Amino acid sequence: MTKLTQWLWALVLLGSAWAALTLGALELPPTCQEILWPLPTYLLVSAGCYALGTVGYRVATFHNCEDAARELQSQIQEARADLTRRGMRF
Amino acid sequence: MATGTDQVVGLGLVAVSLIIFTYYTAWVILLPFIDSQHVIHKYFLPRAYAIAIPLAAGLLLLLFVGMFITYVVLKNQKVTKKSQ
């Protein structure tokens, strides 16, 4: 089974379980019902927040290598000069 | 470590995501357990908005992504037409 079918299968199972519970398959106390019906949206929002937070954290803690950056820039200039000499237009 | 603005932007993103997460968790999960006469309910919108607002935001996001893709595709087509 491919990954896509696995994910779709899991989604279908969880979605049908949620739909069945929201439409009253089992007799749940009212507070549980009230928490249950926004649950998919809640999971989506928290997944989005986690993604955003991870991106922000990695941006903030990225290790900047000054020397490597300068070396790369000089290599780019060198390559550019070489290619223009050989006749390539940028 | 990353330079100045990078750190500020990154930590800002982390803070925003934490704020949204705590507010939304309190709204969806904690509020039903709190007595409806408590003063804290004043700080939260009616429960229907807990689905409406993320849904609207998601649709807006899809709209922007679609517009961006359309713009890039059209720009590419114009470039290829000019070079023909």
From TrEMBL, chain A:
Bilayer disposition of the protein: Multi-pass membrane protein
Transmembrane domains' residue ranges: 35-53
Stored Pfam families: DPM3
Keywords for this protein: Endoplasmic reticulum, Membrane, Signal, Transmembrane, Transmembrane helix
Domain of life where this protein originates: Eukaryota
The protein's annotated pathway: Protein modification; protein glycosylation
GO biological-process terms attached to the record: GPI anchor biosynthetic process
Signal sequence residues: 1-19
Cellular component, GO, one term: dolichol-phosphate-mannose synthase complex
Coiled coil (UniProt feature): none
InterPro entries, per database record: DPM3 (IPR013174)
Protein name per UniProt: Dolichol-phosphate mannosyltransferase subunit 3
Lineage of producing organism: Eukaryota, Metazoa, Chordata, Craniata, Vertebrata
Underlying gene: LOC103123777
From TrEMBL, chain B:
One Pfam family cited in the UniProt record for this chain: DPM2
Endoplasmic reticulum keyword on record: yes
UniProt subcellular location: Endoplasmic reticulum membrane
Function: Regulatory subunit of the dolichol-phosphate mannose (DPM) synthase complex; essential for the ER localization.
One Gene Ontology molecular-function label: enzyme regulator activity
Keywords: Endoplasmic reticulum, Membrane, Transmembrane, Transmembrane helix
GO process annotations (BP): dolichol phosphate mannose biosynthetic process; GPI anchor biosynthetic process
Assembly and binders: Component of the dolichol-phosphate mannose (DPM) synthase complex composed of DPM1, DPM2 and DPM3; in the complex interacts directly with DPM3. Component of the glycosylphosphatidylinositol-N-acetylglucosaminyltransferase (GPI-GnT) complex composed at least by PIGA, PIGC, PIGH, PIGP, PIGQ, PIGY and DPM2. Interacts with PIGA, PIGC and PIGQ.
Keyword Endoplasmic reticulum belongs to the record: yes
Its membrane topology: Multi-pass membrane protein
One of the record's GO cellular component terms: endoplasmic reticulum membrane
Pathway the protein contributes to: Protein modification; protein glycosylation
Family per record: Belongs to the DPM2 family.
Main location: endoplasmic reticulum
Transmembrane segments annotated in the record for this chain: 12-34, 49-74
PANTHER family reported for this sequence: DOLICHOL PHOSPHATE-MANNOSE BIOSYNTHESIS REGULATORY PROTEIN (PTHR15039:SF11)
Protein name (Swiss-Prot/TrEMBL): Dolichol phosphate-mannose biosynthesis regulatory protein
InterPro entries assigned to the protein according to its UniProt record, in alphabetical order: DPM2
